[in-house]
Amino acid sequence: MVLDLPILSIMLLAPALGAIVVYLGGKNDETARIIALAISFIPLVFSIVLLLGFFPVTGVELRGFREPGGAFMYRAYESAPWFPTVSISYSVGVDELSVPLVFLTCLLTTLALVINWDEKHRVREFYAMFLFMETTILGVFVSLDFFLFFLFWEVGLVPMYFIIAVWGGPRKQYAALKFFLFTFAASIPVLIGIFAFYAYGSTFSMTQLIESARTGGLVPAGTAQNLLFVALLAGFGTKLPTWPLHTWLPDAHVEAPTGGSVILAGVLLKLGGYALIRVNVQMLPQGAQDVYWVAAILGAISIVYGAVVCLAQDDLKRLVAYSSVSHMGFVTLGIAAGVAAARSPATAGGALLGMSGAIFQMFAHGIVSAALFMVAGSIGHKAGTRNISELGGIAAVTPRISAFMMIAFLASLGLPGLVGFVAELSVFLGTYAAFGLLVLIPLLTVVFTAAYYIWTMQRAIFGPLNPRWKGLEDAHSYESVPLAVLTILFAVFGILPFLLLDMTVAWAGRVLGVP
Amino acid sequence: MLENAWLAWMILGSPLIAFVVVGLVGRRLPEGGAHVVVGSLAASLVIAVYFLVQVLQQGAIGNSTATTVPGFTWIPGDPATGEGAIGMNLLIDNLSAFLLVLVSFLSLLIAIFSIGYMHEEAGKPRYYAEIALFVAGMLGTVSADNFLQLLIFWEIMGLCSYLLIGFWYHKPEAASAAKKAFLVTRVGDVLFLAGILVIWNVFHSFRFEEIVQKIPVLWGGAYTPQLALLIPLFLFGGAVGKSAQFPLHAWLPDAMEGPTTVSALIHAATMVKAGVYLTARSFIFLVPIATGGGILVQAVPWNAILVIAGIGAFTAVFAGSMALANYDIKRVLAFSTISQLAYMFLGLGAGAYLMASEAAHGSTEVATAGYSAALFHLTNHAFFKALLFLAAGSVIHAVHTNDMRAMGGLGKLMPWTSKTMLMGALALSGIIPFSGFFSKDDILAVTFETGASNPLFYLMWVAGIGTAFMTAFYTFRMWLMTFHGEFRGHGHPHESPRVMTSVLIVLSVFTIASGAIAFLTNGFGNLIFYEEPHAALPLITPLLEANVVELALTGLSLALALAGVGLAWAVYGKRVISPSTFTKTPTRAFLHSMLVNRYWIDDWYNAFGSRTVAGFARAVDWFDRNVVDGIVNALGRGGVVVGALSDLFDRKVIDGAVNSISLETIRSSLALRTRQTGQVQNYTWVIVLGIVAILVLAVLLGILPRILGRP
Description:
A: mainly alpha; two-stranded parallel ribbon
């Protein structure tokens, strides 16, 4: 079955138009919610179709595109000239790197709409904002033109800014402004980078830039590539976020509403990791080979530092936010390890796993952190506090939310059989291949990670019930359903990781030039 | 090849299905789904027996061939060659087939016992679901055909032990013990994981069989002497955590906070035995590998073997001594488990050393007596420790306390429990002809024999026979304090229900009989062996060969065990020696309190965790809030000032539609305070304006290069 629909354009347009429909058409809050949820299923269904297109077994075929003589294949490709004079075009498509993230975005948007079902403040605007945000995030993942890419990249800040600033907690203004300024400042090196690529390649077409970089015909190797690599690492690394550019994250998360945190941690952070691979690795291959160590060090510091700081947190959301810093460090480290290990044929196998592990970790962290923030938000919402020290023994009164919390914690600490373990294992295998026994530094953090989660559970949900929480409500159905969906995905991708890894390993082989 | 090999998946599949069923609908089933779990374990047992029979028939005893039951590729390898792929397959050889039977049989008995023991508990569905997953984890661990798969099931089992130790999670001690178990074993797991990383990067495979083939090929290349030393040490680190050996032993005594049936499961057939199993599987890194042209002795990591045996010998004494002074019936048993596991590690270490040194001296005969002896002891210990724990559970069920000072005289009130537990006590003490005697004697004999190659093993042998004395003493101290004399507790204890005592009786039969396996198979080494089977009957062989030295050694260890029993009888039975003798002088009192406080090691660990680590974390947190974020905020304030200045500049100097639109965006972003309370229509307006501004800006910038003369 060949699908010749403009799938990606539909996916981009549907939520954006849907946002207007929800805003204008939602007579009351309930209709607005239902319309928004219904609309969010359009991109979700199409994203599953896209995923199926990458499995020949399913028989779904998508329109493919390959630059003449190029190594990389893009599917569901659409292209139309936009500003032909400067070779700007509307080009979209997905490949093995972006398609898991596209699915992740659509899935988490739908779940985020459900988890905030009881939001009472300006409901129409709230839901419209989420749909609009979905378009901008999807836009970044599917754009194959730098102009389009940057457009979505920048516009995406706006809805998240408002979600924090309008529907956030007590310090929402500080947090929202900090989020905006950080990410806005980080756009400066990105913009410079894009112009540099244009200056060298005379095109905004990312597919062309990637191919010419692969054959060494884009940015001259040496200082130019290395400088660009570091500058873009700082730009994308802020979004990731990597140490020491991470301090906006805890504040933004603590103040954001639950659905906002879900999207922020689940998807927005992935923009950084995605761009790091798409741009830094694919368009600056020699620069990556020269200064991969900067990324490796930042990644390793993030992993260790985030985990240690987690041990000192009392606020559940801050805890999860710092754990995100730690876990996103695996993405940076995995990328660096993949690039470094690809230099020698003896360690090429590890290189593939390092790079694939980074991609897998983006997906894994996406679904795990979404569940973590749902749990933290739900507890905070009902108890009026998220402080671990004030909770205690609540498993006795809230068995459902406690069970979800435990599963999400276990998935996050890398329990085998769940999704996080596969990602960490792959990244560690790649890190050993690249850096040998230095892998012990990030590896030992696994103990810290277990410690902060297990200790949190002991204090928050186990032990004698704090009498204050005798009447604490358990999870509502609109909280249980999204959490159950995510829990099933933890197990599916933890037990059958080849569903993603088969394609990412093959793709990583092409990117790293490993057979 | 095995017939119906795919069925092997059902050995672990069956309890997994039970886990899902009981987990989902257990609340609506009678006894919380106990019967589903019992049935699933019975099914596992039947299938496991089916495969054991096949394995034994096929090669007859002693010529077993390993069969790999294919599964699926878990992580793909090189896209072109497929090298490095990580699969999920089962390995059925004599060791795994035997252990599958042992594990499913004992778990089945424990599950049946639970029907009586847990009858009045509220959380039964949770209990049975977790038990089913736990057993599936152990069955998966012993049937994995590669190290990674082993680790995966090993950790699933670790999770279940965490959940079951914390079964009564509302009790602070239980919650704390569960945390301790998870974190302490996690330290070991990380070392195991480190070993996994090295193995894959050297061999590009985790499969036992493939690694054995690749060692001679890669030796001198990717497999360097340093890595040859590191890999077994890392793997042993995992075993130390799981099997609660020094210095990661602290979790096991606390793990007694769970239901006693869980303790029986953890100590008898699952969890702690996994460490011994892992070390047995890592023999491929310890002993010389036969190559086409001879035996590769150079790759033997002598020091790693010494570490394994040394930790074993030390822990045997160390844990045994802590059992001497404890009053908690379950904790005494827990320390004894640590000490007995240590025997197994000593046996494995001595066996590997002996094998390697014989090969180094040109002997082509492979001596794996230590390997077989350790696994023989594992088998016997599984039976008698299950019996001891379940009997202790029966006692606790009756008197509602673990404290032996509130027991006594129960022999008359609980005759079945008392008599069956006596069988277990005799086996643990190593009194002939109970099972523990044969396997322990095997281990000590191998250790002594290895002393000829390295005198350190003589020292370890002394530790071994010293432990034999202590074991006999504390075991009978426990039995006598519980069942002998007058009842010192409250209430009216009575014998446990039939479902519990019948399990005890079955187990006591096996406790006596498991030693006889060695006679049935003409030596345990004919059943479970590494590489080559060997007939070595305990006690009988030296008798036949009239080896005076070995007979004397056996006699000595037996005499010491009897002396231990005698001393316990003198103190707690006949009472000719008062127990207060042990605390009479200040030195003795100090030693006593040292043992009671477990050498204060737990206190040090707690202090390290709650002061050192937590303090460090708070310091880093302070650094993050004040230094990293402080710098950023300072920069941000600077940025706002610059922004405000440029805003002023814009307003004063530049005029025009485009600029005012982008200005609107900047101003609304920076000075949101004024807008915050205002109309949402305004926000929407701002968004639209922002998009337009960025579009215009981008178009202008895109055209810029053209204006500047670029194509």
